[in-house]
Amino acid sequence: MSGPPLFEIDNLHAGVDDIGILRGVNLTVQPGEIHALMGPNGSGKSTLASTLLGNPDYEVTEGAVRFRGDDITDWSADVRGKAGMFLAFQHPQEIPGVSVINFLRQALSARKGIDLSVLELRLAIMEWMERLDMDPSFADRYLNEGFSGGEKKRNEILQMAILEPEIAILDETDSGLDIDALKVVASGVQEVRKDRPELGVVVITHFQRLLDHLQPDHVHILMDGRIVDSGGMELVERLERDGYESWR
After folding, report:
1. Is residue 1 situated within a structural domain?
2. Which end of the chain has the smaller Cβ count within 10 Å, N or C?
């Protein structure tokens, strides 16, 4: 008998300021799967991302979010992170005075429940920076301060590699990126999956281009707060050809 799914969104209704935006979202992610969620502006993508990230501004009014069988609907973002969820934000915050390496050391120590030395972590980071084609001096820069859009995204992929999560939620991680940076994000995700083939990934995106590089197992179309269609890359091709009108 197989266990529960890795990640499950079950009849999720949520909103902000008493305005209902999600109207019954259902999604099941098994280990190793990449799921892409696409939808027009106003479809509920940002609300879904914020709800999955544990943003306290968004209220779940019905349904549940489960991670490895546990109901995490009411868990805070930091508890979700410690449990093995990785949450990549659309606009990562700048943290002046905290270097990338120190941020990663604190995050990893919290995630693993052990106190790592900077040296141990530096060795791991250097190996990953090489694999992700990042400049080693990056480790000592202040987190996201003065980073380009592409550098912020690479930094998030580095965090995903180091923290070894079981599920990664990537919220419009491709927004504002040029084609080269998109490739970096996609190849970075694939590089992490080489080491962790069981990693589940949910990508919330506007752009077909990222999916061409990522080749998700499942594609879902979100409209008016519900998933209205699910399939494979053929949905992306239909979207390219006909736009969202064909689902209205």
Report:
1. no
2. N
Q: What is the CATH number of the domain that holds 53?
A: 3.40.50.300
CA 79: distance to chain centroid? 16
2 found inside a domain: no
Which helix H or strand E contains 140, and what residues bound it? none
> Can you tell me the distance from the alpha carbon of 118 to that of 97, in angstroms, rounded to the nearest whole number?
16
- What gap in Å lies between CA 152 and CA 148, rounded to an integer? 6
Residue at 14 is within a domain: yes
- Can you give the pTM of this predicted structure? 0.91
Q: Tell me how far apart the alpha carbons of residues 27 and 10 are, in angstroms, rounded to a whole number.
A: 7
Answer yes or no: is pLDDT of 236 > 60.
Answer: yes
**Distance (Å, whole) CA 160 – CA 186:** 13
Label the pairing between strands 167-171 and 200-205. parallel
Total tally of structural domains belonging to the chain? 1
